[in-house]
Amino acid sequence: MHCPVCGHDCVTDARELLAALPERFAPCPDCMGLVYDKRLPPPDIDVAEPCSSCGKRFIDEVFAQIYRVMADEGDLAGTEPLAAVGTPLVHPGFALRQPPYLPPGSLVLLSQVVGERAAARLVAEVPEVRGVVRTGAGTPGIADTDAEPHAHTLLAGCDVRADVFPTRAGPVVVYKQQSVLHIEFPRGIDAKILSLEREIERHHPRTFVDACSGAGTLGIAAARAGVPRVVCNDAWYAAAYWTACNLRVNREFLAIEEVTVHRSYDDLRRRPVARDPALVATAAGAQEVEVYQGDLRLLDAVLPQNIDLSALDLFEKADAAKVSRIAAAWRARVGGDIFIP
For the segment 125-177, what is each residue's pLDDT rounded down to a tens digit? Predict the structure, then answer.
């Protein structure tokens, strides 16, 4: 599928991506890699090249090369620990039992200290790096439609990557642009998905609403579990777009026909935070799925009657009073059962 960030075919169908998972980060018999102490600078030795047989390289060797480029460009003094480089996000992300051997184009680097010159060099010189993101204050997205949105800065390459989340019905593949959406790296057991599955088992809903969908994980997991009608919504443009994209990515696992996307990435980006709900994507068949961009407090205007179950995965769940107000308003306007993942 066409990538809205770099224009290449970065987004593949779930079945194709899942087929390649078992060997994605596994070493071949010829692979070798040194384990470095992340609390120290990398040792002053030559960094290993990618394996001549499979093209992969141990992640510590990759980070050592990244460290040297950043030190060469003045982003690091050369005395910091290896961990000071930043946060590695592999593509695709899934629960790993061992540190990965990285194939080309499999790493998005998030760093507070990386500069533009180093970022350009990393994408050009380090084959495993697909994108470099400079992180700022705050988590990407919005806490409320009236709040100032946050985003990180993509300095070089492409920061679109996928995560694979296990569900009882089978895996769900979730793509996202990492500079504008928060990290939800799979850890083997996902508490939010377990919460969703418990609620589905309790209520057997025919309709499910994910009112703060993020990139669409819970809504698509509900559809994967067989809920006949699912509605996903988020006020943040990137969340709504990637939910629609992920509906298309996972469509083979759902009882739907072709997904119709009504709003382009550029259209949504022109109105990054929406209040009045706008339809972004639809899919119909034995199941029906709709994706909206809008304020959840206005979503009842476009919802079908008799909503059975809703997830309110609010950005700031620590504000108990706010959560209580929103949940009470939802019960009054929409009805049905509610849970906070």
Answer: 999 999 999 999 889 998 888 888 999 999 999 999 999 999 999 999 999 99
Cis peptide before 92 (omega within 30 of 0): yes
Say if residue 316's pLDDT is above 80. no
- Helix/strand/coil for 66: helix
DSSP conformational letter for 62? H
152 in Cβ contact with 180 (< 8 Å): yes
**Residue 140 and residue 231 in one domain:** no
Indicate if 109 and 212 belong to the same structural domain: no
Between CA 300 and CA 291 the distance in angstroms is: 14
Q: How far apart are the first and last CA of the chain?
A: 31
Say whether both 87 and 153 belong to one domain. yes
Q: Which structure tokens are listed for 5?
A: 């960030």
Cα gap 219→215, rounded to integer Å: 9
In a domain, 285, yes or no: yes
Backbone angles phi, psi at 30, to 5 degrees: -95, -5
Residue entry with tokens 């592999």: 90
Q: What is the CATH number of the domain that holds 291?
A: 3.40.50.150
| Count of the separate structural domains present in the chain | 2
Does 205 lie in the same domain as 100?
Answer: no
Range of the domain at 24: 14-161
Q: What percent of the chain has pLDDT over 70?
A: 100
Considering the domain architecture, whether residues 144 and 40 belong to the same structural domain is answered as yes
For residue 295, the SS3 value is coil
Same domain, 96 and 138: yes
Helix (H, G, I), strand (E, B) or coil at 191: helix
| Inter-residue contact 337 to 310 (CB < 8 Å) | yes
Cα 159 to Cα 95, 143, 181, 290, distances in angstroms: 20, 22, 11, 26
266: tokens are 């550029």
Q: Is residue 300 assigned to a domain?
A: yes
Question: Interior CA angle at 9 toward 14 and 159, to 5°?
Answer: 85
| Residues 155 and 251 grouped into a single domain | no
Do 157 and 197 fall within a single domain?
no
Check residue 137 and give its pLDDT: 86
Beta-bridge partner residues of 165: 172
